[in-house]
Structure formats: structure tokens, C-alpha cells
Amino acid sequence: MLNSLTPSSGSGLLAVGATGNMVEAIVVKFDLSGNILWKKLPGDKLYLVVGPKSGGGFLAGGSSADGKAALVHLDNNGNLIARNTYMAGSCAQFMELPDGTMVIGASTGSPAENFLFKTDASGQYTTESSFIRNRNRELRFGDFSLNQIPSSTLFFDNSRSAFSHIPSDMASTIFSHSLWVGAKDTSGFLKVSASDYREPQSDFRLGHMNSIVSDFNRLWAVSKQQIQSLRLDFLDNGVLDEMPPYDLLTWPARGNVHFRFNPDFTRVSTKLDSLPAPFVDANSDGIYNVYDGDYPVMKGDQMLWWVYNDQTEHELSFSFPLGLDLAVSLYAFDCDESEVVAQSLFADYQLINRSSHQYVDTYVGFHTDLDLGCFEDDYVGSLPEEHTYYVYNQDEVDGVIGDTCSFGTSFGSSIPVQSVTFLNQSLDHMLYFHDHEPGTNPPSQDP
Asked: In whole angstroms, what is the distance from residue 78 CA to residue 239 CA?
């Protein structure tokens, strides 16, 4: 199987791929009539891409024999000059810059996580901090770490909570948090959109209603410091002298021509004039371009942003779509002056009715699974006057017998407080659900 083709020196074509049994990488040179001139097996597992190398020869990217992302330098006869390997996975794209350094796109794992990283001119990177993970993104605040995936559900990564309390051996306080919305149209017909833990089973899909799902299978992460640095760079002489951060460059705002490739290295096919992310339009041309001084509208000091919609088959509620776009801003403040603010995570939901229906009797709520370390001894309560609900422990030690827990990590005797508060809406109703325990009424168990 041949995966990539490029013109060879002189006349002819160079192709790379893998042998028929897909266990050994192959390099093949053809003449312009398609006749094979030679074949080489440089000793790797698979090559996906090939291109010329400045100074002579070729670069091929793929997987090494031991399953690592590999970039190899071959001479014009397919002989190996140098090999560099990185993390487990495959090199899927590369670009050589004028100074000889490389930008490499690689993927690893299942489901795939995709990375961009930069190397020196010899193809080596010095630290793993050079990686940019551009699907799942991390946000740190106070004593907490969050690794959010693009989803209609916060904090849950399809197997466990990714909302971790750092000092307590990575125990979590929230397992998942997802939006529910229900409304009647003017004819009285009820529609509901909701999600809980299960992905891809959901009433939602990624992207806005007029987008391709794969184009929004990622999060964008921006920081106040990045934007300040960008503004100072641009305002100095009207030109960006430094390379802008990847998320500011690819911010999915109207007309952004730099939003061209997805994390899996496929091309973006959503119409650029429909990109929905908010931005400051420095030159008032209606188009986002970071090189014109434009920058994202953000909240807090660090923020994650993504978008999803409910125009899809409703696999959980079995209802009909409302026709909603939902944009999420998840942000935090680096605030040493206030411990409460520093330990708080803020979530802003923008709901836009894209349908032709007007809705009445509309209710928006959240399904929150509050797991305070060991979930087996948790209780929930509410403070209606503060528009708040919260989780607390059964006793002074987190665990069923002492600090033991059959599932999850216990906080022991150092138990934090976790609450959810509405800052600009009232908390009008609250329901709680029992775990699936013997003797509990089935309708009161997990929905």
C-alpha cells in the first residue's frame, strides 16, 4: 500500500507506504511511465507522508518498528541517512521551515489525540513542552486541574472524571456536568435536549448547525497573557514580529483563512463566513485575521471555548431538536487576592435559537454528578437564596469504612467544599437522585 507520492530528483516519482502485510515501511521509485526502478525497506513500520529535504534527499513520516512517530531522512536512492522518533503513534504531516527546523503533526492513541510540535534542524526536540495538544485542553486554577474534551458534558472524559483536586492524590469533586433544556413551541409541542455521561450517545453534536462535525472536534485555549503579548507586538509597528500562538491563529471566527486544518490533519470544509467564535475586529473589516490585529473575545485569565448544537438524532431524550447552537466558555482567574475566586471555575453558556420556532415555557438546567472523592458517602443540599447547590460528606472522613473506597480516590479527613452557583440566573428548582442502591425507588435513581 502506497500512501504518499512526490517528484523525485531528475525524472521520476518517489512513493512511500507499507508492504502488503502492513508490517514494514517501503520506499519505491517509479519512472514517468510508472515502471518500478527500485524498492527500499528502511526498517520502519509504515510511512504516511514524503517530501523533499532542503540540502538534498527526502523526508518521510510515519511509524517506527517499535510503534513511535518517526521522521526519517532518505537520500535520493532511498537509503537511510537519519531517523528521529518521538512519542508512541504516527507522524502524519511535516513542514520544513526556512531555518531548517521542522513542524511535525503526529497522532497517538485510540481515540486519536493529535499533536503539533517543533524540532531543531536535526529533527530533535528538547522537551515535551514543545507539544501542543489541540483536541483535549488543560485548564489549571487554584488547587484544581481540568482536562476537558470537546463534548456537551463538562469534566467527564468518557471513562472517568478529568476534574482533579491536585493536592489530594488527584481525587475529584465533580464527575460530570451537562446541560438540559426543554421548551414548548407556540403550538404546545414539547421538545427536549439533554446529555449525561454517554458520548457519542447524546442529544447534541459538535460544531454549529451549519458546520461539519469534524471541523469542531477540538477546543480552543486562550490566555489573557497571550492576548496582551499579541496586542503589544502588533501595536508596536502594525506588524506581528513573533509567531502568534496556535489557538489565536486558528480561532474559529468569521472569515479566518488560517483555520484550514483539523487536529487529524484533514482540511476544514465549514464555510469560513459561518465561523461563530467572538472576536475583536481591530480594523473593522468583518473578518478575523490575527495579522490584522484581531484577537478573541475572552473572559477570565485563561479560557477554553468550543461549540455544539442539538440538530441531530436525540439518542437520550428521544425528543425532537429545538434547533439550538450552544457556545461554551470555560474560564478561570489567576487571582491571588481572593482565594474564593482563585478556586472557582466559571462556565458561560450561550444558547442561540436557530430554528424558525418561537419557544415558550422554556427551562434550562444542569445534570451534575457531584462526587466528593469517594462517592459512596456523599449527600447533596441547596441554598436557594444563594442560587447554589452543593455536595457534602456523610461524616468527617471521606470513605465508606474509614477512608476506604471501592471506586475513586478518597480525600481522607481533608475534605474540600464543592458547590455550583448561578451568578446571573435564579435557582428555581432542584432535584436529587439516588445511586442504584437496594431499596431505593427506581424513579428516584439516576435518570
From this structure: 43
pLDDT per position as a tens digit, 198-243: 666 789 999 999 999 989 999 999 999 999 999 999 999 999 998 8
Quote the CA–CA distance of 192 and 177 in Å, as a whole number: 17
**Residue 69 identity:** A
Give the E-state strand segments of 210-289 in sequence order. Answer: 220-223, 279-280
Q: How far apart are CA 205 and CA 269, in angstroms?
A: 17
* Beta-carbon contacts of residue 44 (< 8 Å; ≥ 6 apart): 24, 25, 62, 63, 64, 65, 70, 72, 83
Residue type, 103: V
Question: Which SS3 state, helix, strand or coil, does residue 275 take?
Answer: coil
Q: What is the DSSP letter of 209?
A: T
CA distances from 179 to 57, 123, 188, 203, 362 (A): 54, 45, 22, 10, 13
What is the DSSP secondary structure assignment for residue 116, as one 8-state letter? E
pTM of the entire structure? 0.77
> Which three cell numbers, joined as nine digits, stand for 267?
482540511
d(CA 347, CA 218): 17
Residue 443 phi/psi, 5-degree rounding, is -60, -20
Question: pLDDT of 335-378, one tens digit each?
Answer: 989 999 999 999 999 999 999 999 999 999 999 999 999 888 89
Q: Which DSSP category does 286 fall into?
A: S
Alpha-carbon gap, residue 321 to 225, rounded angstroms: 39
Closest by CA to 268, choosing from 134, 418, 127, 389, is 134
Which residues have a Cβ under 8 Å from the Cβ of 31 and sit 6 or more positions away? 11, 12, 13, 37
In DSSP terms, 220 is beta-bridged to: 305
Name the residue among 329, 369, 390, 447 with its Cα closest to residue 176. 369
